[in-house]
Amino acid sequence: MNESSPLHLAITGYTATTAAGTGIQENIDSLLNEETGLSHTLKYDKCDIDTWIGKVNQLDTVTLPETHSDFDCRNNQLLWYAINQDNFINKIEKLREKYSNKRIGVFIGTTTSGIQRCEQFFSSSNGNNAPPQDYNHEKTTNIGSCTDFFLNIFGLEGMAYSISTACSSSAKVFGSAHRAIQSGLCDAAVVGGVDTMCLTILYGFNSLQLVSSDICRPFANDRAGISIGEAAGFAILEPDSAASSAPLLIGYGESSDAYHMSTPHPKGKGARLAIRDALRMANLDHKSIDYINLHGTGTMQNDAVESLACESLFGRDVYCSSTKGWTGHTLGAAGIIEAIYSLIAIQENVIFKNLNTNIVDPNINCKIATETISKPISHVMSNSFGFGGSNAALIFGKKG
Amino acid sequence: MNTTLFVNAIGLLGPGMPDWNSSLRFLKGEDDLSLDPVIFPKPSLLPPNEARRTTRLIKLVLNVCEQLCSQTDAIYLKVPTIFSSPGIDYDILDTICRTLNTNPENVSPSLFHNSVHNAPAGYWSISLDSHSPYISISASKYSFAMGILEAIASLENYNKTIVLTTFEMFTSLTLHKIVPIDYPFAVSMLLSAKQTKDSIAKLTIQLTNEGPESVGISETFEILRLNNGAARCLPLLCSIASLSLNTSNKSQESISTFSLINQYLTIKSEVV
Known about the structure:
- The complex is a heterodimer of chains A (about 400) and B (about 270).
- Helix content of chain A is about 30%, strand content about 20%.
- Chain A contains twelve helices and 17 strands.
- Chain A has helices spanning about 25-35, 75-85, 90-100, 115-125, 135-140, 145-155, 170-180, 200-205, 270-280, 300-315, 325, 335-350; strands at about 10-20, 20, 40, 50-55, 105-110, 160-165, 190-195, 230, 230-240, 250-255, 290-295, 320, 350, 365-370, 375, 380-385, 390-395.
- In chain A, strands 1, 2, 5, 6, 7, 9, 10, 11, 12, 14, 16 and 17 form a twelve-stranded mixed sheet that branches.
- Chain B is built from ten helices and eight strands.
- An eight-stranded mixed sheet of chain B has the order 3-2-4-5-1-6-8-7, sandwiched between helices.
- In chain B, a hairpin with a 4-residue loop joins β7 and β8.
- Chains A and B meet through α4, α6, β6, α7 and α8 of A and α4, α5, α6, β3 and α7 of B.
């Protein structure tokens, strides 16, 4: 362990595109107006599941530039669409000028990447025919694709990889960036996450009976499962400087449940370890946290276990809520989107309502925010817990 | 960057290479490697109902991690672990895509939760009952080299020891038309920032502009190195093997070079 206090990283730019909005301002508007981005569907593609989804509708008309056509798939279309918001492309170009292209790390989370291309290949002839000429599996379907695409767009050549640890993927990117910068392997980093609608996810979660036909209601008495969503988000991390007023990543914690592939540890053991380690790194008492953005997927088990873990560490001292009522569960993008929502909470001095939930489950003992609350926010924690028992907790702080 | 770290144990499973010790004579070039089919051993640390659900890929990865247990105490393995793979579980991808095409309502729930890229990692943490974090990464043909960088970052910052596991599954049937991988391959290494009683090699690692990347020590090794993205690590394994005591041609040091994006990772392996 580095014996001096851990490096604080400034988050000097970010962008997010979700079902609740394209770019930061639309997401803020949805959050503050308490307007969900989820919509009811009886059919997505050829899937007849009765459910609510968080679709980015504009994606159906997005095309990639011809020079990047090898990378063409829904996941990379969403990546491209997202980075074209909030002047983000310009920000990355300026970052490259400031640090040089070999000194910027890139860490992007995804779970299904461009799997739709593979689904489509099989659907045409059960895979018996020759694959289409333009199907480049490595540049679309494989997990490294989104990071490879990002590096390609900007000509970046530093330390870079995709992370795929289910729902904690794009929270863990912050840990990777922190380690890489603190060890001197890079001087700045771009972190992000992207995941898109596909049949594998819809039918897969349905097979586990985790998909609700009702809109997701995290921590509700009558919660019945997740609403699947798609999203992309990116953030720029640089060492903090005296001149900067940007919010900071001040701590993170990671752990494993070592319990089951799709069921969380019943006592939330891994979750508690991750949260505890984040607080230790941030050198904060639990009471210093003003708001916790919970993983809060809306499943019976996640919400019960997560609230156990939070209650054991925070009691009823800290307001918390899930924002998946706006975006749905965006899987590999959940970490980055909820990290960005945490930064918005700091920027706007607001605690988000736990949307869609009318009656909180009486067995949930942490302090769920049942309405939007305006109050000064200095520190926010964001939780992400994934299949395979992969847990991450992040802590962001207002500068000064 | 100029970093030193130590290799304390190695697990290996590949064509004609069932474990590290049996493979030394091939890796040293004393005998010719034959790319014989890999047998995927049953996991020995999982409860039977969990072991039953594991795919060939999960068995591949668990086996090389389990091999470490015979070389060091399991307690030393309950550390942060990096799982790096260029690809995914192609067996599951094939099955799921076929099922989606014919009877999607019957997607198997256990197959689905095993389809996540971190499934091998999750099963390993269950095998060891380890709450240490793991990370599952992918960076196409740079996956091994980026895994080394992640190991360096982890060791410098927060940890005394770390496990780095690199693997890639082969493809059969339909997927072979899109991803022609003929051989499975996996390696797992217990790495430390400081020398230990178990250390078998000292690695000095630098980022340079000086290529070219190292190639296989024989035509057979080169076929494997280019065919399976995880097998890009072979030059390092051959370097470490060349340090071993069982030959009069033991070298004191051996250098292997790996491509990154327009730069190179150079690893000097030395006797401890």
